[in-house]
Design goal:
This protein is an alpha+beta fold and 749 residues long. Among the domains are: 94 residues, OB fold (Dihydrolipoamide Acetyltransferase, E2P) (Beta Barrel), CATH 2.40.50; 260 residues, Metallo-beta-lactamase, Chain A. Helices cover 45% and strands 19% of the residues. The strands form five sheets. An eight-stranded mixed sheet has the order 17-16-15-14-13-12-25-26. Strands 18-19-20-21-22-23-24 form a seven-stranded mixed sheet. Helix 4 crosses helix 14 and helix 13 packs antiparallel against helix 16.
Length: 749
Amino acid sequence: MMRMLDEGAVEYDRVGKGDAGSTSEGAVVSRAPSIPARPSFPLTLGCALVVWAVAAALFFVTYHPGQSRIPDSLQSGVYEFELLEDARQGDFGFSALARIYHAGRSYDVRILYEGSERFMARERVTAQASFSDFSDASDMRYAQQGVVASARLDDVALAPDQGPLAILSGLRKKACAAFDSIEGKGSALLRALTAGDRLNLEEDGLYEDMKVLGLAHIVAVSGSHLSVVAVLVSALLTRLGCSKRLLSLTLCFFYAFYAVFTGLSAPVLRAAVMASVVVLSIWAKRRSHALSALGACVCVLIALHPENALSLSFFLSAASTLGVIVFSPLFSFWMEKLCSGRVRALCDAFALTFAASLPILPATVAVFSRLPLLSPLANLIAAPVFTVFLTGGLLALGLHAVAPAAGSAALAILARGADVFCAGAEAAARLSWSCIPVAGDMLAVGFVVACVAGFLWARWPDPSAKALRLGLCFVLAGGVAYLAVVPYAAKDEVVMLDVGQGDAFLIRSEGASLLVDTGNQEQKLLSALARHGVSSLDGVAISHHDDDHCGCLGVLSANIVGDVLLSSETFVCGCDDCVQLLSAARDAVGDGRVRSVSVGDTVRVGKFTCTVVWPYSFEEEGGNADSLCLLVSFDAQADGSPESSVLLTGDAEAAQVRSMMDEARIGAVEVFKAGHHGSKAGVDEGFAERTGAQVVLISAGKGNRYGHPSKEALSEFEESGARVFRTDTQGDVTCRFEGDRVSVFAQKP
């Protein structure tokens, strides 16, 4: 007979004589596993933290905004460049980070070139180059990477001498070409995993699905994920009787080969180093040895490249590795207690995920602005699948090199399996609550995480199974209560969200919410939604196809529980931009939840009624003049007589606004959203008087290159006596409706 004890031990009662350790009655007791030893804090790890802090401080002391960092020796001329990453194609050609060796020194620059050929990491090119400084908005970002200038290239060609890595670069290029004939998301995923080439990865929303599920490290190789691969491979080889020495050599060879084959990019090199440290922690007799090795690695990598101290990917690799070494044994012990000793493999996998996630939580909150709730389960499923795809893909590429037909067939079979995985990931990413927006200051969140980690390390708690279960129930209940209650705690509001140079307006009342436009800056949108406690949306309306109004629609796939609303004219226009907008909407929520609306249609959001007042027909193939415009009426008493109204105009300009107000017989509105971000064309003489608005909202990015809002628009509205609120200077602006009164609150007064 077997029964479970409160502490999670399993007690077996056997009849007959017991072995050593049996009781007088013959019962043999299997004791609960003892808590793992707490690792000591090695001096090298402390030194690494000091080195890291000093390097970061030195950067901020020596960095001077607006000061040119272009060396005097870099003048316009012909140079040879070695690409440090694969070139990426944008609206204005290809771009990549590259290195110049000139006058006995090396410099990292960002290159931009036009043409049809895409060059890849470690390839060398010659070109006529002209150098320039970065814009004020991007200068610090590139300075943190050690990049000194932007280089515009002309007459680009492969250099005659490709250096010592020419053979491997050629093999990698052929490996990437092997995927060209295989269509589908699975092919794009395998290409990223095996060759490190992320071409086509963002098509059809694959990369966004990975981020929603917390699986972005699958396609952007990180130390934490290679660590999981190391654990899985170690377990397999150990079962096959492989010695520790052979196992270590095998893993080191794999990491070295993988780093070289994927182009020796800095993130992969760092990931390989960090994963090697985790392998050391598995076999080291004391985890403090692994921590010492981690500290030494951090010191060496920062000494070789001080900019690593400010690299997000470096922080993610080092911090997640630290979490795995220190906390995974403790968390695994807790999980085994929680599950009463069952499913130990699952407990270890969950423990690895939680241990790697804890130290990087500040970056998850402050940089990515999202919390993937399905991440532990998704990682549990994806880790072994990733290992199969990675090893199988590399073997298939090797076969392709000697027998192209057989290799292509093997890759096609793997790609079909990857298609199934991608389909499952897409379905999971569409689940409500699979990912929620979060916001927080990195220093504040980092302080909280440091306190939690310090408490765990200092106390090294050994709670009972009952306490663990109660704690888990408390956390789950608190999370569910928060997600269920917060939407109803919000007031009746129209919020202009600060999403940079773009539009995003949140309408919410009585627990319902509608987002009008999304902007095109993912982190800004998610942070803004999180600031207002929004984790789900009952609908999203898109005014038109410009990227700064719909660019983040795919980001919200896990948060939209209702429909995406588009002008009915969008469905019949047929232009490329409208077709692309329709495709993006269907990718985000599915074909059945993309809905057309026309003039006169209404959408209820609690006490608000949103009436479509424009466009009657398209004049510019869905451009600015064809923006979907809404008259948002607030009816506090539900008596059919609205007390206040807001006119949301998208990018419509003065002529269209006058027409819609005349056609819809709109007299005056209390709140007016300035068309086209407050551009000059958005107003004309007497325009402010025609709208009659007391409050004017202008959504524009700080220091934008368009000069929005224009002096003409500001002058027109201010001279009329209206109160003007702007996201570029005041952040989020909330218009709160209470009876016949409208109160306005700015994030930055």
